[in-house]
């Protein structure tokens, strides 16, 4: 898990895939932080991605760095109304803070990924490493 968190912290600008009416939807999505066995993200409850996740919580994200190393993470999203998590995200991300201002902004939604599987690989041909939540 720590290797995945490290990779995502070094490369936080990921692409998150959801499903809407049986069709894939992919968009840029920033990783916020990892703690324990969880990967945390946030969104706005007025966005399509929020509605998609309410209907189908299954997601997969992908990211690649400039060394042609990549990671994929998939699992189920779990939304939580936790002021401590929101405050930490605002502290970590100046962009999120500039949008939502305070942790009690009703549009700010936070979620983590549970029941996850991850892989870190490389286009160089090195063997991939696989990880799974406990």
Descriptive notes:
InterPro entries: Pyridox_Oxase_N, Split_barrel_FMN-bd, Stress-Dev_Protein. This is Pyridoxamine 5'-phosphate oxidase. Residues 3-89 form the Pyridoxamine 5'-phosphate oxidase N-terminal domain. The chain is 25% helix and 48% strand. With 134 residues, it is α+β, with helices and mostly antiparallel strands. The chain has a single domain (2-132), classed as Roll (Pnp Oxidase, Chain A).
Quick description:
The chain has 134 residues and is of the alpha+beta class. The chain contains four helices and eight strands.
Supply the CATH class: Mainly Beta
- What is the rounded distance between the termini? 10 Å
Content-based structural category: alpha+beta
Percent helix, as a range, is: 25-40%
Sheet-strand content, in percent, reads over 45%
**CATH architectural category:** Roll
Count of all domains: 1
Total number of beta strands: 8
Q: Which fold name fills CATH's third level, the topology?
A: Pnp Oxidase, Chain A
List unreliable stretches of 5+ residues: none
Question: What gross morphology would you assign?
Answer: globular
What series of H and E elements makes up the topology? HEEEEHEEHHEE
Domain Pyridoxamine 5'-phosphate oxidase N-terminal: 3-89
InterPro entries: Pyridox_Oxase_N, Split_barrel_FMN-bd, Stress-Dev_Protein
Organism: Psychrilyobacter piezotolerans
Protein name: Pyridoxamine 5'-phosphate oxidase
């Amino acid at each position: 898990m720590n290797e995945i968190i490290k990779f995502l912290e070094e490369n936080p600008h990921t692409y998150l895939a959801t499903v809407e009416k049986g069709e894939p939807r992919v968009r840029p999505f920033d990783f916020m932080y990892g703690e324990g066995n969880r990967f945390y993200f946030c969104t706005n409850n007025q966005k399509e991605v929020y509605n998609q996740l309410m209907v189908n919580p299954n997601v997969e994200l992908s990211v690649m760095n400039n060394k042609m190393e990549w990671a994929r993470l998939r699992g189920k999203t779990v939304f939580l109304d936790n002021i401590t998590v929101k405050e930490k995200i605002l502290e970590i991300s100046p962009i999120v803070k500039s949008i939502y201002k305070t942790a009690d902004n009703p549009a700010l939604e936070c979620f983590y990924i549970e029941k996850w599987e991850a892989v870190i690989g490389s286009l160089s041909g090195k063997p991939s490493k696989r990880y799974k939540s406990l």
